[in-house]
Amino acid sequence: MSSNEIKIGAYLLERLVQLGTQSIQGVPGDFNMGFLDLIEDHPSLEWIGNSNELNAAYAADGYARIKRTISAVVTTFGVGELSALNGIAGSFSERLPVIHIVGVPSTAAQGAHSLLHHTLGDGRFSAFVNMSKEISADSAVLKQKEGVGEAIDRILVSAMKKARPVYLALPTDLVHATIPADALKTKLKYDAEPNDEAAEKYVLNVAKKHIEQAKSAVILVDACADRHGCIAETRELIEKSGLPVFATPMGKAIVDEDHPQYGGLYVGNLTSEKVKEVVEGADVLITVGSLKSDFNSGNFSYRTPKESTIELHSDYTTVGYSHYPGIGMKGLLPKLSAILQPDQARRLEETKTVVPKFQNALPSDSSDVISQEYLWPRMGRFFKEQDQVIVETGTSSFGMLEAKLPKNTRWVSQVLWGSIGWSVGATLGVALAARENKLGRTCLFVGDGSLQLTVQEIGTMIRHGLTPYLFVLNNDGYEIERQIHGPERKYNDIPPYDHSLMLDFFGDQKAGKREGKSHEKDMEPSKKQFYRVQGRKQLDELLESDEFAKPDRIRVVELMMERGDAPKALKRQAEATGTANKYE
Amino acid sequence: MSSNEIKIGAYLLERLVQLGTQSIQGVPGDFNMGFLDLIEDHPSLEWIGNSNELNAAYAADGYARIKRTISAVVTTFGVGELSALNGIAGSFSERLPVIHIVGVPSTAAQGAHSLLHHTLGDGRFSAFVNMSKEISADSAVLKQKEGVGEAIDRILVSAMKKARPVYLALPTDLVHATIPADALKTKLKYDAEPNDEAAEKYVLNVAKKHIEQAKSAVILVDACADRHGCIAETRELIEKSGLPVFATPMGKAIVDEDHPQYGGLYVGNLTSEKVKEVVEGADVLITVGSLKSDFNSGNFSYRTPKESTIELHSDYTTVGYSHYPGIGMKGLLPKLSAILQPDQARRLEETKTVVPKFQNALPSDSSDVISQEYLWPRMGRFFKEQDQVIVETGTSSFGMLEAKLPKNTRWVSQVLWGSIGWSVGATLGVALAARENKLGRTCLFVGDGSLQLTVQEIGTMIRHGLTPYLFVLNNDGYEIERQIHGPERKYNDIPPYDHSLMLDFFGDQKAGKREGKSHEKDMEPSKKQFYRVQGRKQLDELLESDEFAKPDRIRVVELMMERGDAPKALKRQAEATGTANKYE
């Protein structure tokens, strides 16, 4: 190959490195191993090697959340890629840029419609890409060398711009084929398109009038402020406007929760009375990156009328009933902040008087039971700045809403897609990203039910020497399901695991460093520790111990909790969901 | 509801019961629990409650193989159903009738395109059914009561006739709505269409001439003889024709392997010389239910020319280059047998002289290492009539081909789809079916790599009191991948598990019978035993012990084997696959 030629697989990897990826998730398969060679030999990439493809996709999702860039997952044709789909669909739904790279049979074998293993046996090689298209922002099925660089660049830009997954089919015979490398000298551009100046000016004027005419206004921060790279702009809006600010469940911790203008979470009618008063009493509601799903909005129970709402999105804006396509928040936010600044001081005074204080208040009862009411504010006091807090869909994702998190904590939850088991895979990705970015501790909260779906990924964590805290809420089954339907039904039961054996099962102490050429460069596996915690006192002691606070090993903390107990917000949501299902 | 009305969910269950289903696989989710109520309350159905949806789909696949009827898996909208797709696609590829029943949001919520949890967040409620259509023979998305009974009947008949999965979307508000029950009095008909008499007569004549003109002919039995319910007809053909018979990997054990006319496996150029001589030396090759995939045919290396081949399929026949659509083997086989019977005695004499003896020959070396060459014939001697033998894609599925199995052993492998991890889920389904049908023991052979993908399903086995033998080949990683590519690559490594802890981790002894109303009717969980086997002598002793032979507990037998060792057939196949991939 000439000096300015590069293998197609290597071209793709260089682009990923340029975008900030350092770890690649996936499972080996006979149609992707030629590509895995390139990853393993790459000086600045780490191949993770997950326990299965679904877990790999979950890990990629978690990794993208922390790195705030594209994440990659590699699978093999048919069998591998289909196992990953639920995870990829979750990244689509929750807006995370992920590239799903699928090693597929050689172009020759595909052209001949051969009856290969890993096929449907009917020669339809397009079936799997058709399936993935439903959950991808863009896709490319490589068929010859020509145009490959452009195709790779196009889908990577799509993923970054749209904050959605993309799909790449990479045939075995093209991985090591070469293409010109020149394009790599120019980095990919994926900034939001600038707004049309005249239109933007018009929208600003309308918004300004709206806010000036109002006696009161509040800001509501949601997930897409993060997903579309507008956190700095959102924080600026808060500072310069002096307005009260609240967050949705998906937007939690984007605003520092001890910010003087921050009043806590707003979730429609699931919200505390004090917060409801302020949010629903305001004349104008300014939402930033809103994603109004059922669980993110208290089953669509916002009270502010449409005509009093200003919505700022990545690629459109609404003011009352008026819709302005193409006016995105990346450009609009700084200008809106500037417009609002003159009244900052006055608004700030008002804000101080109305905003409720959000804090970790423990219940006053003297019981030693680790109740839901107790656990979450107690955990809130445990976290430190720069920690990662991952909550499983279930009691954890509802309960932890009630905990106040320190500044710069990363909140990782899956409120919209809500796939049980996601959090365990995601924790692997989060822990890898936190290690790469030198962030704080990684803490997972998962129920004994959800844990079972993806439990083997703990083996991958140990193998890579990761040291997350895994808090397992043992309440004898699927509690979120019991809250919605069938509290005494057997179908909400699970097999009882002995969690004390978990770390030693998934990381054989005795195997230690194994022999053989391929094991020479193995990482030192994690040290491990298990704790079974029966009551509040024991939990308190543990959380206050300096030794425990140091993330020098992987820890499983089994919290023995009562079946039937659930966070208040979940109880109310479950009732609404149960009613909407209309079984009778 | 009037006396001849029945809930839609109950109608579906009655149809499944009529077809012979007794166990239903799946995972609870908020959109399917109204349906699970009906399953849990049904007097003759057992809800299994798998550890995740992929494992559930694998279990349904295994269950369908043993029961030889439709198997059901229940998931929830989006998150649940997508996790099952790889398993369902496997059943499509390998031709098993499975109904995937998905609990979906109420028709009202779907009509309003609500931004519900478990959706893609863009109102596309059709995305998931579109994905499933690619891997389904038929599907029904219920939208109103009218025509529901007919739709359910139609897809069940499609599944049975085509031996493929079908998809049913069941909205929450329709599960308990009622429809007329009268149709249930008539059982579903799914027999193969009778052949056109005149056309069939013509085909028989052509086939007869073909065979009469040949000096020698052989029969090759393949998977679809089983999948399309033609085992009795195939056995009759063998008896009445007196011809030599061989099997493909996917057709193994359909013909009793100690039948005097049986000569072993034919896998193109992966076959032993003796078998090749007879099969490739024959003037006519009669294939029954052929499925000529790469791994099932030694990479398409059959030597018999097309003009000398007679293919009998479920819905067409070929004789040489002539293709006869609509002439299916169910009707044709008995008539072909009758035509061949007059020459039976003469052919039988010849057959006896040419057919090689297929037997469990142990290697003659005195090593104590459990080599691949030793293991498979040794295991062949362990099995008894009516046992189930499940082999994972990998060294096991290639190795066990070399073992002679006793009469009426059920051979369970996934040669075409070849999804690693499938066998563990499938073992759950197989063990349930074997218990229901009062068959013999269930024996799984899986490598330490493949085991990790789906290992948690062992918890479900213990919970349901099942007692399979789980033979785990510990050879330090993905050996089949190492054979194909990258023998020293780290990407073929896996985290080392301590298999001695596996059963106690997934089935907490101390938890025992748990308290609470829902646990009152819990099954007694399995007794458990673990064995680590280091050498041949130890294995011998174990396999010869009467205590071990009795399936009164779930057993994990860890076989310590050497990395780099592989069955001969796999070595040859891996070479062919590696070459076809053309990485350089």
Automatic annotation (TrEMBL), chains A, B:
Describe the location of the Thiamine pyrophosphate enzyme central domain by residue ranges: 207-330
Q: Which residues form the Thiamine pyrophosphate enzyme TPP-binding domain?
A: 403-491
Boundaries of every Thiamine pyrophosphate enzyme N-terminal TPP-binding domain copy: 7-114
Q: How is the cofactor bound?
A: Binds 1 Mg(2+) per subunit.
Q: Annotated region Disordered: where?
A: 565-584
The protein's required cofactor(s) are namely: Mg(2+); thiamine diphosphate
- Gene3D superfamilies reported for this sequence: 3.40.50.970, TPP-binding domain (3.40.50.1220)
Q: What is its main location?
A: mitochondrion
Q: Where in the cell is it found?
A: Mitochondrion
The reply on keyword Coiled coil is no
Q: Which ranges are annotated Basic and acidic residues under compositional bias?
A: 565-574
Q: Keywords for this entry?
A: Decarboxylase, Lyase, Magnesium, Metal-binding, Thiamine pyrophosphate
From which domain of life does this come? Eukaryota
According to the UniProt record, one GO cellular component term is: mitochondrion
For this UniProt entry, the molecular function terms from Gene Ontology, in alphabetical order, are: magnesium ion binding; pyruvate decarboxylase activity; thiamine pyrophosphate binding
Entry keyword annotation includes Magnesium: yes
List of residues binding Mg(2+): 448, 475, 477
Q: Family assignment?
A: Belongs to the TPP enzyme family.
Tell me what this protein is called.
Answer: Probable PDC1-pyruvate decarboxylase, isozyme 1
Source organism (scientific name): Ustilago hordei (Barley covered smut fungus)
**What high-level taxonomic lineage is stated for the organism?**
Eukaryota, Fungi, Dikarya, Basidiomycota, Ustilaginomycotina
